[in-house]
Design brief:
- The radius of gyration is 21 Å and the shape is globular.
- Helix 3 crosses helix 8.
- It has a seven-stranded mixed sheet with strand order 7-6-5-8-9-10-11, sandwiched between helices.
- It has eight helices and 13 strands.
- By secondary structure, the protein is an alpha/beta fold.
């Protein structure tokens, strides 16, 4: 498997109340600790007074991230920062989950295999057995975890245990058609990504593309978002749309939606794993 090397080996992300001196304090700290800034992006939200920063850097003195994080604690406390240091050479341990639609799963597996996604897929879990051969063909463990209304709690406990056993830091619902419990959502804030069509709330149910075709919609879209206790209303990471016409069939609609879902989910996973996505209440700040 080939891998893409990050532009900067280390990264610092910051979220805090906006005030004068934040960028200067971060820059001064990195300089004082023999670190060279390679890239940096910032955003101040004037509506809620929050400030966000993503800075990539190199350490010229061989300091570890743990040492830098400990030394930065005083500055973080002074400015009320949520600050995190990352080694960009480390790939995010990830669990993929799927049901009976495999287009997003197949796309993620391919991108992972060619090194286009900075994730380390630890396993794939599904409530159906359909994609076991596909997953095992990529040299990955496949876990068939069937679920019914009566076994939902026990099945979810198995998913949680699987994630814990593998040190998973990101769960991707690649068209996993089960609603996660509010307890599980609360245990993984900002660490579960879902993908779905963007017809919600207009066309709910099992046949949204049929309903959309019946209404003659002109745009088909897909949305990737973080999972919260509010069903399909978590902070949005990425969206895309494509135009359709009256000449196209339901199957054409479905094919367009399938392509959009795969593309949008891959972008969301990549940006999350590159630590480009910072939560801003019900919204996200994304440093492209």
């Amino acid at each position: 498997m080939t891998t893409e090397q990050p532009t900067a080996p280390f990264l610092l992300t910051v979220s805090c109340p906006d005030r004068i001196g934040i960028v200067a304090a971060v820059s001064r700290f990195l300089v004082d600790h023999a670190c060279n800034i390679v890239e940096s992006a910032q955003y101040g939200d004037h509506e809620n007074g929050r400030f966000f920063l993503r800075t990539g850097f190199e350490s010229t003195a061989g300091r570890t991230l743990a040492e830098l994080e400990a030394a930065f604690a005083a500055i973080a406390a002074q400015y009320g920062m949520e600050a995190r240091f990352f080694d960009m050479r480390r790939r995010t341990p990830t669990l993929l989950m799927v049901s009976k639609f495999g287009h997003c799963l197949n796309d993620l597996l391919f991108r992972w295999r060619i090194g286009a996604l900075p994730i380390d897929i630890k396993a794939v879990a599904s409530n159906h057995a359909d994609f076991g051969d596909l997953v095992r063909g990529h040299g990955l463990d496949f876990h068939h975890l069937p679920v019914t209304r009566d076994t939902k709690q026990a099945q979810e406990a198995k998913v949680e245990q699987l994630a814990a056993d593998h040190g998973v830091e990101l769960i991707v619902l690649a068209r996993y058609m089960q609603i996660l419990s509010s307890e599980m959502c609360a245990r993984h804030p900002g660490r579960i990504i879902n993908i779905h069509h963007s017809f919600l709330p207009s066309f709910i149910g099992a046949r949204p593309y049929h309903a959309a075709h019946d209404r003659g919609v002109k745009l088909i879209g897909a949305t990737a978002h973080y999972v919260t206790q509010d069903l399909d209303e978590g902070p949005i990471i990425e969206q895309a749309v494509d135009r359709v016409t009256h000449t196209q069939s339901v199957n054409d609609y479905i094919a367009t939606g399938r392509d959009l879902e795969a593309m949008v989910l891959a972008r969301a996973v990549k940006w999350h794993a590159e630590h480009r996505v910072l939560l801003n209440g019900r919204r996200t700040v994304i440093f492209h």
